[in-house]
């Protein structure tokens, strides 16, 4: 159901809380984070059974916080405390909203250029960078300034933040870039050009497509290449085997994955074997892989449920999200009804654990695809986490799937993370909101989902190994 998305979307609403909070010194910040974790973290009681060890850690952290003089040093103290729980769904990170540099002190520079003349000139030259480029939010012109530098300048963008001809980024001959964010602060990294048509800023996951001069790639070819750059693509690697690369299960990739499967349906149905590569997939949403299950499963899926800690933050954030989706009551009718029921359950059980579905175990029937591969290998590594680990647990229940690789990341016992308001705006606190009914019998955190076939370090080519396993 779509309601599964509500907590992630609620993060948007919870972020609005930060502007109303106070600046705190390091000790005040740590004290409030401690209070929040001790009262609202679903794993707190389980992970602090050794009271002496926990209290000692807390005492030392508080002592260290008294002598901190910089934000960076404070962040290390905060991470030292939260690191005790060994839960990678607990994050403390700087609050960028609070740290935004005032516009008058940021990097703003206009490029002196005649756009009409520039459009005409670029049609005659063959420089791979010079031209007009676009992504979802910007139309950019790239002009060569010297043998060592190009400037990307604004043609069209949100006028709240940008003026025409303002420099958006600089490209340097050594492959590095300076990219000016919406607040005009600088981000640095490496760029890469693909097929003289796609410009990728690797660290910030932003890709621009060339518009003028007309690129050699068609629109469909560009889309396929972008998918490949983003680690989401399908490729036939032998006469019998197709590989599906899924590096992300983030919400922004849900529609892309569904379209990818639809566009390649014929190839997928004709393939005797599949390799699904989820190495490096840190998770996102279970909705991302739902369209794959009919092809790989052989039976229903037995799913272990979760229970949510009815904390003030979860209740407030849920109510905030309800207000948002209520603006379109017709489109969101089902979600509104379901969410109201959940909020009522939480309010009736403050400080207790709530199982929305009542049953601890659910059996999901899968409408199996008419045509599907006879065998599937799923490749996973120690960077496969969260929702991607849920995918592994589902896939393991199929009679025709083998998990191959090394143990996964191990971040699944406490999940569905959101930002928690704890009273200070120096740093953000992200925490999980539920715990799995697998506990304590079948923990995954810091252990990982175990592969059916372990690939030791002598195996350099995992895909080649998988093809050989399937076809020979």
From TrEMBL:
Domain Tail specific protease span(s) in chain numbering: 242-454
Signal peptide extent: 1-22
Keywords for the protein's UniProt record, in alphabetical order: Signal
Alphabetized InterPro entries for the sequence: ClpP/crotonase-like_dom_sf, Tail-specific_protease
PROSITE patterns: PROKAR_LIPOPROTEIN (PS51257)
UniProt entry tagged with the keyword Protease: no
GO terms of biological process kind: proteolysis
Gene3D superfamilies: 2-enoyl-CoA Hydratase, Chain A, domain 1
GO molecular function, one term: serine-type peptidase activity
Protein name: Tail specific protease domain-containing protein
